[in-house]
Amino acid sequence: MILLKIIAQGDHHWQQISMASALGISQSEVSQSVARSQYAGLLYANGKEVMKNALLEFLHYGIAYAFPQRPGPLVRGMATAHAASPLKEHIDSTESYVWPYAKGQERGQGIVPLYPSVPKAASEDPKLYELLALTDALRVGKAREKALAMDELKKRLY
Prior knowledge:
The chain has helices spanning 2-9, 16-23, 27-40, 52-61, 63-66, 118-124, 126-140, 143-157; strands spanning 74-80, 97-100, 106-110. By secondary structure, the chain is mostly helical. The protein has two domains: 2-66; 74-157, no CATH class. Strands 1, 2 and 3 form a three-stranded mixed beta sheet that branches. Helix 1 crosses helix 7 (126-140), helix 4 runs antiparallel to helix 8 (143-157) and helix 6 crosses helix 7. The longest helix has 15 residues, at 126-140.
């Protein structure tokens, strides 16, 4: 979530305090995530800039294994995966996936978000919302959804 927020901001001079506030997480969680991401080769040594090729590779091949998810029962929430933009414009489906969220306006099968604060953070940042929804399509989608999600992610990262 932090790497996607950095990309959504488009700012390599972000601060941990503002990042934590925007994402609804603690500053220590941001610090730990930055350290893990640097170690994994997803952030440059300065800890501020995402290694986009590495992140795309992780999202394409690893996200579904590192953060597996199976759609759950029908709940009220915030649309995600192919039920949210930009994929909903390309995919006509009777299935709808949502992050469970009290302020959500959609009904669909529940998808546990990458982090509990994802729905609130996504509702406050449209670019982050798109990136997170595309990431969920990689976690739960079928081959066509995954291919479209990767195309859309590439457009947004470069």
